[in-house]
Amino acid sequence: MTKQRFLSGAYQDRNAEEMRDFYDRWSEVYDEELSENEYRQPQRCAQALVRQLDDRSARILDVGCGTGLSGIALAEAGYEHVDGCDFSPGMLEKAFKTGVYSKLFRADLNMPPLDARDGEYAAIAAVGVFSFGHIMPDAIDELLRVSAPGAAIVIGLNDHFHSQGTLGAKLDALAGDGRIERICEEHGDHIRGTGLTGWVITLKKR
Q1: E strand or H helix at 161, and its extent?
Q2: pLDDT in tens, 148-163
Q3: Nearest-CA neighbor of 139 among 177, 109, 105, 174?
Q4: Domain limits at 133?
Q5: Tell me, what CATH number does 174's domain have?
C-alpha cells in the first residue's frame, strides 16, 4: 500500500486549526518524505550558525522544529543545548524521540508570546517556517525578544516566499531601526528533489 504524501500540499492557505491538523497527519511520514526529496535547509542553516557562534554549549532555540530535522543538524554541528518549539503536537512527539532537544514546547508564533524569557537564547534557527500559510514576518519581533544581545538568527526559506517580499520588507524595517544587522543571504538548495531552491538569511540582534 502506497503511503500518503503531503509535500505538494504544504504551501496551501489554511487556518491555524487546519494547519495544525495537516502537520499532525504529515508527522508520520515527514522525515521519510523529506529524505526522499533531499531536504537541504537544516544542514545549510546549521553551517550558517557555525560561522557565527563558536560556543557549542550556548542555548539555541529551534523555532518550528517539526520532527527534529533541524535539531539533528544542529546537534551534528556540535551544539549541546537546543530547545525546540512547534505548533503541531504530532511533530513535537516525533522531535522528542530524536533525543537531541533539552526542552520542547508547543508554540504558535503568530500568537505570541513564546514560553521563554527575554534574552534567553544565544541563537535562533527558523528553518522552513516563514512561508505561505505558516509563520508571518511579524513573528521576528518575538524571536528578537527571546534572543540575547548579539544573538545570531538564521532563517531558511524557499524561493517563492523570499520573492513575495514581506519578510525582506520586515527585515529592512528592523535594520533601519537599528534592531538587527543583516549579516548575509545565501542562495542554494531548499528541497533538491523537487527542484525548489531557497535562501539562508543570517541576522544578528543589536
Answers
A1: helix 159-164
A2: 999 999 999 999 999 9
A3: 109
A4: 13-205
A5: 3.40.50.150
Is 6 part of any domain?
no
Residue 200 lies in a domain: yes
Asked whether residue 170 carries a pLDDT value surpassing 80, the answer given is yes
Pairwise CA distance, residues 127 & 152, whole Å? 14
Q: How far apart are the first and last CA of the chain?
A: 53
Distance between CA atoms of 96 and 150, rounded to whole angstroms? 29
Please report the pLDDT score of residue 101 as a whole number. 98
Mean pLDDT for 100-128 is 96
9 CB-side CA count, 13 A: 12
Give the integer Cα–Cα distance in Å for 128 and 121: 19
Q: Which pLDDT belongs to residue 31? A: 86
Amino acid found at 193: G
Q: Give the C-alpha separation, 110 to 91, whole Å.
A: 18
The count of domains in the chain is 1
42-70 pLDDT, tens digit each: 999 999 999 999 999 999 999 999 999 99
Q: How confident is the model at residue 7 (pLDDT cuts 50, 70, 90)?
A: low
CA distance 116 to 44: 26
Whether the Cβ atoms of residue 121 and residue 61 lie closer than 8 Å to each other: yes
Strand order across the 101-106 sheet? 101-106, 81-86, 59-63, 121-127, 147-158, 196-205, 180-191
Q: What are phi and psi of 34, to 5 degrees?
A: -70, -35
Matching residue, cell 508547543: 106
